Amino acid sequence: MPRTLRQALIVCRKELKDSLRDRRALLSIVFSVVIGPVLIGFMMNRIADRQREANTVVIPIVGLNRAPALVNWLNQQSGVQVVSGPTEAEKAVREQREAVVVVVPEDFAERFRASRPAPLQVVADSSRQDVQPSVQRVKALLQQYAAEISSLRLIVRGVSPTAVRPLDIDEIEVSTAQQRAAQILTFIPMFIMVAGFVGGMQIATDSTAGERERGSLEPLLVNPAPRIAFVAGKWMAATLAAIVSVCLTTALCAQLTRLLPLQDMGIRLSIGFEHVGPILLAVAPMCLFTAALQETVATLARSFKEAQTYMGVLILGPMLPGVMSALYPLGNAAWTYAVPMLGPYVLLTDVLGGRLPGATAFVTSALTCLVASAILIRITTSLFRSEQIVFGR
Amino acid sequence: MLKITDARKRFGSVTAVDGVSFIARDGAITGLLGPNGAGKTTTLRMLYAVMKPDSGQVQVDDVDAVASPQAAQARLGVLPDGFGLYPRLTAREHLEYFGELQGIEPARLTTRSEQLLDLLDMRAIADRRTSGFSHGERTKVALARALVHDPQNVLLDEPTNGLDVMSTRAVRAIVRRLRDEGRCVLFSSHVMQEVSALCDSIVVIASGRVVAHGTPDDLRQHTGFENLEDAFVSLAGLEHGVHD
Known about the structure:
Chain A has helices at residues 3-20, 23-55, 68-76, 89-94, 108-113, 132-156, 176-185, 187-214, 217-221, 227-259, 273-300, 304-314, 316-327, 342-352, 359-385, 387-390; strands at 57-62, 80-84, 100-103, 121-124. Chain A is mainly alpha-helical.
């Protein structure tokens, strides 16, 4: 093994050992790894809960005995349970004791029998987002009942019900719940990338800006090793930590997609064993790049505090593609793979979406990250040669 | 052997070292004496090849430290100003880290570490993390780390600064021992007593220049002061007046 590489590995091993003993740093990494999956799980569960609530809807009806046929029909529908409504329907809805109340007025039966439009009141609060599925469900049920009755009346009068159905509307339902759930899942690639960024951050800053601030950089540089051995060793340590964070977050997300009732929401997404390889192929080159970038920036910073401030800005990097793609659909144009943060993101969304990108896409993205890392390491090495940088300004 | 010839170093508009020349020989303790800000640390940094002089030569044994800094550093043991220890590593791990970087084989590194732990009386603290160490204990770790590769030349930047009496004595004992082993020891101080108690040869530096160079007796004779401290004050105060 060449001497420089051996020295780089010695530095790498020391930095890993050192950071494993830094309890605060470890906690921040664990937090960054866990926070994404936990947030997704929490939000998805709430959406699923609401979806289930809408599926089994309880309809309070005021004046049950005025429309026994309607009540009968409703009770026969699956997931519907009719109960006696509260005396003051509007007050009950306003005070959020009920999501929706159906009121059958006194003249309902009389008008119904005379084939005149029979009045029904659906009392609901449209400002309450959380009960909209239930309200929609109730309205849809009532409309369905009305349609059935009108068909029956036409048949009795010898008219084909199709004659009064000029349009045959086939509604393809993409319910809001599904949309929201799918949107939340698009955050998974972003969380994986952020974990990769944060995972390497501590080592990258502590081993450069921190090392100088502690005064241990000077004795370190007195060792007979080329500067690039120190820079590369610290970079390798930060990269390894980043990749470990990526693996942990991916494993958590995989576990999550198995636990969540995604099937109930009509979403097909599962991160299986076969995805681990492509995910790492997509993100590992990004870890090389972000670790190199963090190292350069932290070396340039005048103090450890300043380095941390810069990291707070840099973290927008892995978040940007996720946010951008929500606003402008990127597709997968070839050029996107040749942009350091964007390439890994597009690859990740493809892999998680069940479309395995071609080898060229992976190679383009990896090469871009590698070239960018090599340039950054050269820059950091020349910074490590600068007396102004090493001894502070 | 350490040799620096007409070295100059400027930082912006400040001239830190303005033509320093001296030789520190093997088997001798050379003291670099000067008030704070005289250019001692910059001179040492050029000697241990982490700073390049703007002009002038630096030689470690027969190696040109400006042209091949790493070859020079392999022959140097350095205790820099402010030891720079890793708070989360143990004393022993400090020796191992630097020993490995110096390229010492694992078996020899273990024996050498044990030797140094005994020599500096560090057995009790060997496997403790350095974060809670006293000043004296930290000095020992930094000193042991500097000596782990058995260097011919040893540079110590203010090693006894802020040490209590017992620790100072321990450091002095080590320094004498290194001399008796035939090594070249160069150490800087701004404390007259420190230098006069220990050194075979003294280089007095003020405002980036060498204002006197010789044995303690030479200096007394040179300045006409019987007391070495008076000699120092006179030499340092002369600034540009005397050229050796």
